[in-house]
Structures are given as structure tokens and as C-alpha cells.
From TrEMBL:
This is JHP0747 family. It comes from Sulfurimonas denitrificans (strain ATCC 33889 / DSM 1251) (Thiomicrospira denitrificans (strain ATCC 33889 / DSM 1251)).
Length: 129
């Protein structure tokens, strides 16, 4: 998932860039554009606002943001998911449970790897003194 951030609010812009640092991409090459202004003519727009009509309501946490973006990405790529299900012969499971589990599995792997890197960094720092 490649994400671009385009916000009028500098505070929201910077926060989103920090939250999405692993997923950031240019506006030209992204799958989703996160904005704080509603743009109707761009189907890639992910709208963040305080209003009920938004894709994500402020305030939000990093995990809420990532999960909402992953849901949107899944919706955008539903056709590809059906094709992958046929390849892996998982037709008995519906798209939501397969993709939901894959997202959860990838998120757990990412967090585990990040945790491992932090521990190794602390151990190296301790022994390099």
C-alpha cells in the first residue's frame, strides 16, 4: 500500500507523514491520497475530518488510521483478491475474513519485527559502551 498525504493543516500533514512513514509515496505513484479536504473527482482520496461523512473521524490513533487505510485499500483491490483466492483455493472463506486475517497477520509481523529491531538496538548500544 502506497500512500500520499496532501493536507491544508500543517499539523495534520506532519502527523500523518510520521504515522505513515513506511507507506509514503509520491502523489503520482500512490494508491491512496490522504486529505483533509473532500475531493470528489479523485477515487483514491481518503478523507479525514471531524464530520460524519469522512472516511476517518478526528481524533484518531495511528492504529485506527492504518486499519482504515488497509480497509480502503482492500476495497479498491477486491477484484485482485478474488483472483488470489482462486489461486490459493480458499474459495470456502469469504473475502472479508481472508483479507482481514492477512491484514492482521502482516500487522503482527510488522510489529514483531519492529519490536525485535528495538531490542537488538538496545542490546548493541549496551555492549558498545
Amino acid at each position: 500500500m502506497r500512500v500520499a498525504v496532501e493536507c491544508k493543516s500543517p499539523l495534520l500533514q506532519k502527523s500523518l507523514e510520521i504515522f505513515l512513514s513506511k507507506h509514503l509515496s509520491s502523489l503520482k505513484n500512490c494508491d491512496i491520497v490522504v486529505r483533509d479536504i473532500k475531493v470528489l473527482d479523485d477515487e483514491r482520496t481518503f478523507y479525514i475530518s471531524s464530520s460524519n461523512g469522512s472516511d476517518l473521524i478526528k481524533p484518531f490513533s495511528k492504529s485506527q488510521l492504518i486499519l482504515a487505510l488497509e480497509r480502503r485499500y482492500k476495497e479498491m483491490n477486491r477484484g485482485n483478491l478474488h483472483y488470489l483466492n482462486k489461486i490459493y483455493q480458499e474459495d470456502e472463506l469469504d473475502d472479508d475474513s481472508v483479507m482481514g486475517f492477512d491484514i492482521l497477520q502482516k500487522r503482527i509481523e510488522s510489529l514483531t519485527k519492529e519490536y525485535q529491531e528495538n531490542i537488538l538496538r538496545a542490546v548493541r548500544a549496551f555492549y558498545e559502551k
